[in-house]
Inverse folding.
């Protein structure tokens, strides 16, 4: 079986090195590109075929859902997964509505991240359980009135 091809888009070298340590240790994953800015990220996504685009929520040159749109337009097949330490209802809503297939929080164990990425590569949406709670609460608030 071919490895899951991953593009990393992170804010800084330390973050990217940490993700390399988590993914390079597992033969199921192959990192095919990395970027530190949204501009670099879009360019790499256009050049490299990938199964997963794993991105930080806030980059030096972008911090909005518009980046999801650009990345999705550059490669609509790749699963876009946001990795962040911010659990905020408006951010979750914005990124999921902009095409992210996953929203994960950074305080997980490495094997958990690999599990989520395998699921995303298989076509599943991946949400941290705390994000799932936010999504469910939001859905329940917009229930149609009986009539």
């Amino acid at each position: 079986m071919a490895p899951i091809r991953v593009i990393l888009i992170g804010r800084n070298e330390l973050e990217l090195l940490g993700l390399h340590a988590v993914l390079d240790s597992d033969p199921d994953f192959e990192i095919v590109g990395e970027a530190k800015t949204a501009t670099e990220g879009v360019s790499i996504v256009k050049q490299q075929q990938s199964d997963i685009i794993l991105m930080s929520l806030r980059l030096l040159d972008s911090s909005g859902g518009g980046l999801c749109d650009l990345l999705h337009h550059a490669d609509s097949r790749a699963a876009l997964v946001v990795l962040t330490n911010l659990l905020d209802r408006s951010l979750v809503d914005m990124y999921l509505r902009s095409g992210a297939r996953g929203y994960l929080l950074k305080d997980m164990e490495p094997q958990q991240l690999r599990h989520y990425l395998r699921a995303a590569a298989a076509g599943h949406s991946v949400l941290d359980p705390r994000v799932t709670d936010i999504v469910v609460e939001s859905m329940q608030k917009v229930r149609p009135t009986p009539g």
Q: What stands out?
A: The longest strand covers residues 29-35. Helices lie at 13-24, 38-47, 66-74, 89-97, 110-121, 129-141.
